[in-house]
Specification:
The chain has 71 residues and is mainly alpha-helical. It has one domain: Cytochrome c-like domain (Cytochrome Bc1 Complex, Chain D, domain 2, Orthogonal Bundle), CATH 1.10.760.10. It is built from 4 helices and no strands. It is globular and about 30 Å long. The protein starts with a helix and ends with a helix. Bound molecules: heme C (HEC). The site of heme C (HEC) has 19 residues, from α1, α2 and α3.
Amino acid sequence: MITCVACHGTDGVGKSFQYPNLNGQKLPYLIKQLKAFRFGERKAPDMARMARTLTDEEIAFVAEYYSKLNN
Ligand code: HEC
């Protein structure tokens, strides 16, 4: 899933304690957070850098991927 997996894993489980799990999160929640990171409404340097490069289509795609993983 692009480079998201370096921190959040292919299974949506954070690779380290500071990286939140994404598996089992709801689709609308993930989309909302990614757009908030992109516009700097939610402050997080790592995620701002990632989200800045994403189009709406890419956000929808990665959000769908992670929302379909089970806990
Ligand atoms: C360099 C590590 C890193 C990479 C790469 C990364 N993230 Fe994150 N991500 C983080 C950190 C750290 C947070 C917690 C941010 C905070 O402090 O709120 C986070 C938070 C999130 C959240 C919010 C989770 C929640 O519980 O609210 C989402 C959604 C997310 N990342 C999705 C992605 C996606 C999709 C990608 C790929 C485009 C990605 N991340 C790439 C480190 C990373």
